[in-house]
Design goal:
By secondary structure, this protein is of the alpha+beta class. The chain is about 25% helix and about 35% strand.
């Protein structure tokens, strides 16, 4: 498959113990708010043999204030993969179409997302039922790393797992009986810590702009 340059997704993800600290930092830096806190629901699809997951690929339908179908290739490098995304008009029709092609919903996850622009990068604050996360996306790893340094985040604490990958690990550790990462399913679970997720929390260890 041939890809255009703008099909390349380059991003880094971090686990946050406190969302408010990073939001305050973004505001003090003068980052531009692109999208206010918005609820979204995501459906992940795969074949009956889990061929996409086995190959490290992603087929996802997302609904927030838009509906988008996204394909992601296997990871090219720790921060890079190919991504193709299109906007669609009807969630249920797209689910039916994918079903007709042999793809079923294998998991659902929910989150709230807030999006900022800082220099040439896009920075999102994601609130999931099991924790808070920061994603930084840009045209190159160098630019992403620079933005991460501006925020005072330790680059070495970045996460390679997807949100569903983190959820699957948490589900095994806590022996959770549900398959979807929804806020309703997590409502009766006590506070989840970094140790439960087996993740290193990304603290504000550096002053803005300090090399990390």
């Amino acid at each position: 498959m041939q890809y255009q340059d703008d099909d390349l997704e380059i991003e880094a993800k971090f686990y946050l113990p406190q969302m408010s600290d990073i939001r305050d930092r973004l505001q003090s830096m003068g980052a531009v708010l692109l999208s206010e806190r918005t609820f979204e629901i995501n459906w992940r699809f795969d074949s009956s043999t889990h061929a996409l997951t086995t190959a490290g690929k992603v087929l996802r339908l997302r609904k927030d204030n838009r509906i988008r179908l996204t394909y992601k290739s296997a990871i090219i490098s720790p921060e890079t993969r190919k991504e193709i995304e299109i906007e669609v008009a009807d969630t249920q029709k797209m689910i039916s179409l994918l079903g007709a092609l042999g793809y079923q919903v294998v998991a659902i996850y929910e989150k709230y997302r807030e999006t900022f622009r800082w220099n040439s990068t896009e920075i999102v604050l994601d609130e999931l039922p099991f924790g808070n996360f920061l994603e930084v996306e840009g045209a190159s790893t160098r630019k992403i790393r620079k933005a991460t340094g501006d925020l005072g985040i330790d680059w070495n604490t970045r996460i390679s797992l997807s949100y569903l990958g983190i959820f699957e690990r948490l589900k095994r550790k806590l022996q959770l009986s549900f398959n979807d990462a929804s806020f309703e399913n997590f409502a009766k679970i006590e506070t989840i810590h970094a140790d439960d997720l087996d993740l290193q929390a990304s603290s504000n260890l550096h002053s803005p702009g300090e090399r990390v």
